[in-house]
Amino acid sequence: MLVVGVEAFPMVGIMAVCAGFILAMQGASELRRFGATQFVVDLVTIGFTRELGPLLTAIAVSGRSGSAFSAEIGSMVVTEEIDALRTMAIDPVDFVLAPKFLAALIVLPCLTIISNACGILAGGLFMRLSTDMAFSVYLRDVVHSMALRDVMTGLVKSLAFATIIVHVGCLEGFRVHGGPDAVGRSATAAVVKSTFLVILADLGFTAIFYLTGGK
Amino acid sequence: MAGALGETASAPVISVRDVVVSYDARHVLDGISLDIFRGETMVLLGGSGSGKSTLLRQIIGLERPQSGQVVVNGVDLAKCTPRELKKLRRSMGVAFQNAALFNSMSVEDNVALPLREHTLLAESTIRLMTWMKLAVVGLAEFGKLSPQELSGGMKKRAAVARALSLDPEILVFDEPSAGLDPIVAAELDELILGLKQAFNMTVVVVTHEMASAFRIADRMAMLYNGSLIAVGTREELERSSHPRIRQFLDRVPDKTADTAAFDQYFQEYMQGDSV
After folding, report:
1. Most exposed: B131, B175, B187, B258, by fewest CB within 10 Å?
2. What's the complex ipTM?
3. Considering Cα of A33, then A36, then A37, then A43, what sign does the dihedral take?
4. Using DSSP, how many helices (H) and how many strands (E) does chain B show?
């Protein structure tokens, strides 16, 4: 099950690098007008740890694994494997969902940390190329502006996203009724619904942190 | 009608009473009553859409009746607690139509799964028991393979081994011969007969294969359009003059192809008239 995470690593990494570059470029082009290019460091660091890291990871994983979960369970429904579990007095939810949930709870925070690191390093690369900010200076500023609270809120979010992705994916799979074509539809529904719910949950969390943190 | 033919002194192991199941106002099972007694092989016969698979799902407790009751071993499936249902299911082995083996596990692990989940036996004991079940169905040397590497008949036999793993009192087969060639299907019939003799289990088989039904059944129940039209032994069924039973036994099609009508359409089409 942890393969879910290991195989997702390159994709999440590259996405984060790109997003880090984008954020740095966008930020730099605007902030330059105020002569505040050095704030790009804060923008990238805070933006990634709080928001982009967990969100990008969740969207990537929901596309990769959410659909895989629902397709796997859906085909188990079609081939009567879920019925077989029930007649063996084994709870299909315990047997099928629990290990996936556990894996996602471990993998998603790890991927989020990797995504944070990739994004921030990409920002540093951009700063090195566009301005003459040395990499070591950039890293020092990153450490300076990185708050434990931001990192933790990001990780809490990623746990919530993992819950959403696994449950929506598995629920869609269990709801499959009929033939193999229903499996495909359930995989699509799983991705659409879990991505939507992830963004909705992100909005909720951000609102809570904004209102309680006051920062 | 049901139950009237096979009254014996012992109480039925499975007792189905006035079960109604309907999907969207269509009665799939329309007030079915049937008793299955200890140690007998009951074959549920019927054409496609006759409701025989739905009846099977009721008996193994996968679905609950909308009205009526299903009592297995004295437990009412519609009213029992999840705990009772769980206990009951351990005394029931089900071999599904498509075998329903888990492809992520080896054949051996598939058979061992119920033992691992429900018993505290040592791994070595589980291995031995698993090997014995596989030997019973003639797959002793195939335990390490993945289900995908087995042929259709072997998969079904592996599914039987898994159904046997907790030494059930009741063994249920859904379409054992579906999708198998006649020789392999006959082998499976022999396996069912052998198992019944060796372990004295109550066996319930759903099928539409008359040859197979006649070979293995102590009694048969024929379903048509959600109703039981006959319950009885092979001889009783063969003597029956019920038109539907005769039709099923004599393999008479419901609708004959209307070649005359086709000719007429064809003529009209050739003459350029719109059809």
Report:
1. B258
2. 0.78
3. negative
4. 10, 10
pLDDT at A196: 94
Closest by alpha carbon to B49, among B27, B64, B66? B27
Long-range CB pairs of B150-157, under 8 A, 24+ apart, other chains included: B150/B107, B151/B184, B152/B179, B152/B180, B152/B184, B153/B180, B153/B184, B153/B185, B153/B187, B153/B188, B155/B99, B155/B101, B156/B95, B156/B99, B156/B180, B156/B188, B157/B188, B157/B191
Which pLDDT tens digit goes with each residue over A64-113? 888 888 998 998 898 888 989 988 888 888 888 888 888 888 888 888 88
* Yes or no, beta carbons of B114 and A88 under 8 Å apart: yes
Domains, chain B, in order of start with CATH, read 1-38+46-84+208-275 (3.40.50.300)
Task: Check if B204 contacts A (Cβ < 8 Å).
Answer: no
Q: Which residues of A touch B89 (CB under 8 A)?
A: 86-89
- Output the six-digit token pair for B101: 């083996």
pLDDT of residue A203: 92
Q: Which residue among A83, A89, A90 places its CB closest to the CB of B100? A: A83
